[in-house]
Design goal:
Layout lengths: L1 H26 L5 H19 L1 E6 L7 E5 L5 H9 L3 E5 L8 H7 L3 E3 L4 H16 L3 E4 L20 H6 L3 E10 L17 H10 L3 E7 L10 H16 L1
């Protein structure tokens, strides 16, 4: 019965993806930036509801200009943060070429970076700084890879330079996935090295109802720190929020 239920949810996920694709292709050109942001929030909440994930927000997302720095657990993280409060993400460039998903990610306002390329990192930092100076809300996953949601991995500092250059604060954000009934941490949504998007999605669809918690910390200013010092402080803040 669980497999049949998962298959039914999978079909609804496909329908929601197609609905989002149609929205980005046809409706978005007619909408303002604010209307697009609200549409992304509604779509993300709808997708998570189909998958069986309730979103719980603690704290308050900062208004732009601000850079959010969150721990990274799953491909679901972007959906969860969009559902809590729309922001523009910095995503790996490979996603842009994924069928359907690439269009949705681009429609959500993502900026793309070639991982491992120092020159491209500099380009993206300049692009991020410009967006922050315009008052936007951006989000990054400074760990660079997905973890288990229990241990917060060291933060890479390169993209945090954008906040220093734009002289804007960074808000630490902690993400956690829990069993909705027991309130214990769930590893079902974790995206492991050996996972594919489909295998990870299937495992999540077969899991009991889940709760995704988004906890916003207090904004931090650089206060004279360089990006590496700031990265260490932010890692500690996110780890504390995860406790």
């Amino acid at each position: 019965m669980r497999s049949l239920h998962a298959i039914a949810k999978f079909l609804r996920v496909i329908a929601q993806v197609l609905r989002g694709y149609w929205m980005v292709r046809t409706a978005f050109p007619k909408l303002s930036d604010e209307q697009q942001a609200r549409a992304v929030e509604v779509w993300a909440r709808g997708m998570l509801a189909i998958i069986g994930i309730e979103v719980r927000v603690k704290g308050h997302p900062a208004q732009g200009p601000v850079l959010m720095a969150a721990n990274h657990i799953s491909w679901l993280d972007i959906l969860v943060m969009h559902a809590a409060c729309h922001c523009r993400f910095v995503a790996k460039s490979e996603i842009r070429s994924w069928p359907l998903v690439g269009v949705l990610t681009t429609g959500g306002g993502s900026l793309y970076i070639e991982r491992g390329s120092r020159n491209d990192a500099m380009r993206v930092v300049h692009q991020m700084a410009s967006a922050l100076c315009e008052g936007q809300v951006l989000a990054v996953f400074p760990e660079g890879v997905t973890g288990d949601g229990i241990t917060v991995l060291p933060f890479h500092a390169n993209l945090l330079q954008a906040a220093i250059s734009a002289e804007v604060p960074i808000q630490p954000v902690a993400l956690q996935f829990m069993d909705a009934h027991t309130q214990e941490r769930s590893l079902a949504p974790c995206y492991h090295d050996h996972d594919t998007l489909i295998s990870s999605l299937w495992r999540t669809l077969c899991a009991p109802p889940l709760l995704a918690q988004v906890r916003y910390g207090d904004k931090q200013n650089a206060d004279g720190r360089n990006r590496r010092e700031w990265a260490q402080s932010l890692q500690t803040s996110v780890a504390d929020l995860c406790k």
